[in-house]
Specification:
By secondary structure, the chain is an alpha+beta fold. 65% of the residues lie in helices and 12% in strands. The chain has one domain: Outer membrane efflux proteins (OEP) (Up-down Bundle), CATH 1.20.1600. It is built from 11 helices and 6 strands. Strand 4 and strand 5 form a beta hairpin. The longest helix is centred in the middle third of the chain and has 67 residues. The two termini are 42 Å apart. This is TolC family protein. Belongs to the outer membrane factor (OMF) (TC 1.B.17) family.
Length: 438
């Protein structure tokens, strides 16, 4: 248990320092490093730092810094200075003509002070707000980081799919040319030419679809990294999850609940709600105002005095504010329960996807893929020599094409499952390494 809280404390300190590590504080201009050559860390960092969602959370952290300074003020308000000047006249009863005059004035300075530990509570609230926002910033950073990796995995798959469909489209055009030649020589019925042309149109559509997905994914990456959309982006690679998994799902869920920043965030929100409830209760204790005055009263009479004042808690008893604060505290408890349920479901889904896709991807051996490429090239030669019919060549091409496409899609899904697994378990980004081509 002590190691657990020690880990949480280190995580809190790390999260609080994210702001200082990511952005300069005193108007320092940040040097952009989002330029080739690319590596995994550079792309992920650029994707995070250029995203408005992350920048908004950083700005909220700066806002809370201002609130921390406000809470550290020693007095709830500035001192109040007031005064007045008057002139008094007194007529004599015996000689009404003669009268006495006196100039009166008063200067008073008053200051409201905190009572009942309100300032200390306000400082604690500001500190908890800062820690809470630090965990929220870390949660946003991790989500954007893994979202960037997922986008890279999809982009790699779309490029590979485009290459596969383009190659098969060229092969289909060659089959169409051979079918037309056979029909022209009277070696095949005219329907073979129609079938070949229809298949060529189908492959052309699939190739264009793959091309559109690649261009759209390239646009997303360009916007994410702040690059010109016309600039070519070269990236090829696969992701590998290095760590093993415990055999029991309950232990895997415990790892996620221990590591995910969303849990720490929900716990901080509970503490923050408790402090705000305490702050509302302290509002029932009125602040005191102390004052001192200097007065010239009557006929040249000097008076120096002081006063104490306080508001009466009669009409506004803060019962409504207390109900609101209690309700928010209860909501924060339910929010934590909801977050835990979401994380548990995410872990179950991620583990299931990872294990099944890992087994599925292992079925595609290199020999099968190599033989598929060989068979695709054999179709053209077999059709030219009349060893196979056009309809059989087209059907065989569809089956072989689907094998290559399934390999590409399964590889991409497996890479995405590894990225998602590391995210939902709250593991360090270094547990996901970059390998060779998919």
């Amino acid at each position: 248990m002590s190691l657990y809280y020690f880990h949480r404390k280190l995580t809190s300190v790390y999260c609080i320092l994210i702001f200082f590590a990511c952005f300069p504080l005193f108007g320092e201009k940040e040097t952009s490093f989002c330029v080739p050559p690319w590596d995994l860390d550079k792309i992920a960092d650029c994707g995070v730092k250029h995203h408005p969602e992350f920048k908004m959370e950083v700005l909220r952290l700066k806002e809370i810094q201002g609130r921390k300074k406000i809470s550290s003020y020693f007095f709830p308000s500035n001192p109040n200075v007031s005064g007045y000047v008057s002139k008094r006249s007194a007529a004599s009863e015996l000689i009404p003509v003669n009268s006495n005059h006196a100039n009166n004035f008063q200067v008073m300075v008053s200051q409201e002070i905190y009572v009942g530990g309100k300032r200390e509570t306000s400082i604690r609230i500001a500190d908890e707000e800062f820690k809470t926002q630090a965990f929220r910033l870390e949660s946003v950073r991790r989500n954007l980081y893994f979202r960037t990796l997922s986008l890279l995995a999809r982009y790699t798959n779309y490029k590979k799919e485009e290459e596969v469909t383009r190659g098969l489209y060229d092969l289909t055009k060659e089959i169409t040319r051979l079918a037309q030649a056979r029909v022209k020589e009277g070696l095949a019925p005219a329907m073979d030419e129609t079938l070949a042309l229809s298949e060529e149109l189908r492959m052309a559509k699939l190739w264009q679809q793959s091309k559109r997905k690649t261009e759209q994914s390239h646009g997303e990456i360009s916007i994410l990294l702040g690059l010109p959309t016309e600039k070519n982006f070269v990236w090829e690679g696969s992701f590998h999850f290095e760590n093993g998994l415990p055999g029991e799902k309950e232990k895997i869920i415990e790892i996620a609940l221990r590591n995910r920043p969303e849990i720490s965030l929900s716990e901080k929100e509970i503490q923050l709600a408790m402090l705000r409830l305490e702050e509302v209760k302290l509002q029932k204790i009125p602040n005191l105002s102390f004052g001192a005055f200097v007065q010239n009263d009557g006929f040249n009479e000097r008076v120096i005095g002081g006063q104490v004042s306080m508001p009466l808690t009669l009409w506004r008893d803060y019962e409504g504010e207390t109900l609101v604060a209690k309700s928010k505290q209860e909501q924060s408890l339910e929010t934590k329960e909801s977050v835990e349920r979401i994380i548990k479901q995410e872990v179950i889904n991620a583990v299931s996807n990872y294990l099944t896709l890992k087994e599925e991807y292992s079925l595609f051996s290199k020999d099968i893929l190599k033989q598929t490429d060989t068979d695709l090239q054999f179709l053209k030669e077999a059709l030219r020599l009349g060893q196979i019919k056009v309809i059989d060549a087209l059907n065989s091409q569809r089956v072989l094409y689907q094998t290559k496409l399934n390999h590409s899609q399964t590889g991409a899904d497996f890479a995405l499952s590894q990225i998602e697994l590391v995210r939902v378990l709250g593991l360090e980004e270094t547990t996901l390494t970059l390998g060779g081509k998919l």
